[in-house]
Amino acid sequence: MSGWETVIGLEIHAQLATQSKIFSGSATAYGAPPNAQANLVDLGYPGVLPVLNAEAVRMAVKLGLAINARIATHSVFARKNYFYPDLPKGYQISQYELPIVANGSLEIVLEDGAVKRVGITRAHLEEDAGKSLHEGLAGMTGIDLNRAGTPLVEIVSEPEMRSAKEAVAYMKKVHTLVRYLEICDGNMQEGSFRCDANVSVRRSGTSEFGTRAEIKNLNSFRFVERAINYEVARQIGLLESGGQVVQETRLYDPDKGETRSMRSKEEANDYRYFPDPDLLPLQLDAAFIEAVRATLPELPDQKAARFSSQYGLSAYDAGVLTASRELAAYYEELVRAAPQDAKLAANWVMGELAAALNKEGLDIGGGKLAPLRLAGLLARISDRTISGKIAKEVFEVMWATGASADGVIESKGLKQITDSSAIERAIDEVMAKNPTQLAEYRAGKDKLFGFFVGQVMKATGGKANPAQLNDLLRSKLSG
Asked: I need a surface site. Which of 38, 65, 136, 161 has the fewest CB within 10 A?
C-alpha cells in the first residue's frame, strides 16, 4: 500500500529425510497409528539419554554448503524450555547461540525478471514436537507423539523480503533446493515442509523496523501469500487509525482468509535457553565437511544455467524445467531421445504434458507418458508427418491409452498431407465455392486470408501441411 514498506523474514522448518529420529532410534515414517513410533527417549522418561543422529548432521552440512554458508566446526545443542501438550519433556532440544550453519544466501527471480539475493542468517538442527489432534474427539484433544523427535533443520532468513510474492519465491527456492539435495521430501500436506512468517510494516523511506507479528505453521505457498497480504493490510489499517501493532504469534485461518491472535510473542529469554547437559558439543573436522561437499548434486541454479547454454533455452524455460529434480531428469531423457528438438521438447513438457499432469493431480513421476513415448510424437512433428494441431489430438489418445504416436497416427489416418498437388486441388475447390470472398480478398480485404486457410483445412480434415498451405494459398489467391 502507498506510503508503507513491508518487511518479511521466514523461518522454514524442513523435516530431514532420515530413517530414524534425531536423538533416538524410533522410525520417522509418516502415517503410522498414533504413538506407535515414540520410545522412551521421545517421551522424555527420566534417566534416558539422547544420542545424536549422524545422518541428520550430514544433511544439515549439505544444506549449508549448498547455500554457501559457514559450517561451524563447533556447535552446541541447547534446551528451549516451554510447555505445550505435545512436548512431553517440557523442553525442545535445539541450537541457539552456536548453530551448525550460518551466514548463507539464495537468489530469487522477481516478477520483472530481476534477481534478488536473500540472506540466510542461520540454519540449525532441532527436534520436532508431537502433534495435537482434534478431529473426531468430541471436544477433547488427542496427542500423537509419533512426530516428537523427528529431525528438523530450521532455516532462518534475514528480514529482506518486501512482498508476499517475494516470500513465496524464496520459499519455493528453498523447497526446490532441499528436494534436490534429497534431505527433505518437501511434502507440505504431511507437514514435512512448513514455515513461520515474521511480518512488519514501516513508513516508506524509514530504516527502523516496525513491530512484527509471527504467523505460525503455514504449509502451502498459497496460504503464505494470502496470510502475509492479510497481515500487512491489518497492520497498516491499525497504524493509520492511530492504533499500535502488538508483538504476538498469530494463526492463519484459510477458511476465513484471515489471521487471528494465538499468544503473545515470546523472546529468547522466555525460553531460558541453556546448553543441553546430555549432549556434548558437536565437533566437525574439515575432512568430514569436504566429504559431504563431494556428495553435492548439480544444484538448481547450476542446472538451469546449463540448460540455457546446452539446449538454447531462455532463462525462464530453464527455470521452469529445473524446478524439480524429477522434471529436469524427464526433460533431459526426452532430449536425449530427440536431440534435434530441444526447444520443441521444452514447449511440450511445459505445455501439454504439464496440463495433463495438473488435470489429474499427478507429479512428473506419476505420469502416463514415458519420455521415449513423447519423443516419438515429437519426431512425427519434426518430420512433418503431422501438424502441431493434430499432434495435440494424438497426445490425448496416447495419454489415455498408452499407445505409441505411430500407432495412433496410423489407426486414425492422421498423416499430414504434404502432396502439393492435393493441397492445390483443395484450394481450387474452396476458391470455386467462395467467389464473393475471393473477389473481396483480391480487392484488398487481406483479413479474408484466414477464412480461406480455415476452409482448406476443413476440406482436408485438418491434415494439410500449414506451411505449404500458406505458400500455395497466397500464390493462388494473388491470381
From this structure: 136
Joined together, the cell numbers standing for residue 410 give 496410423
Cβ pair 307, 334 in contact under 8 A: no
Cell readout for 305 is 544455467
If one compares 137 and 33, the residue with the highest pLDDT of the two is 33
Beta strands 4-15; 151-157: pairing state: antiparallel
The one-letter code for the residue type at 300 is P
Banded pLDDT at 82 (limits 50, 70, 90): confident
Q: How far apart are the C-alpha atoms of 69 and 105, rounded to whole Å?
A: 7
Residue 352 CB partners (closer than 8 Å, separation 6+): 392, 395
Q: Is 161 exposed, middle or buried (0-12, 13-18, 19+ CB in 10 A)?
A: buried
Which residues, including other chains, have CB under 8 Å from residue 2's CB and lie 6 or more apart?
none
88 vs 103: CA distance, rounded Å: 33
Distance of CA 220 to the CA centre of its chain: 10
* Separation of first and last alpha carbons in the chain: 61
What digits encode the pLDDT tens for the residues 177-203? 999 999 999 999 999 999 999 999 999
Strand runs labelled E in 257-404: 258-264, 274-275, 282-283
pLDDT digits (tens, 9 = 90+) for 401-427: 989 998 988 887 777 666 577 777 878
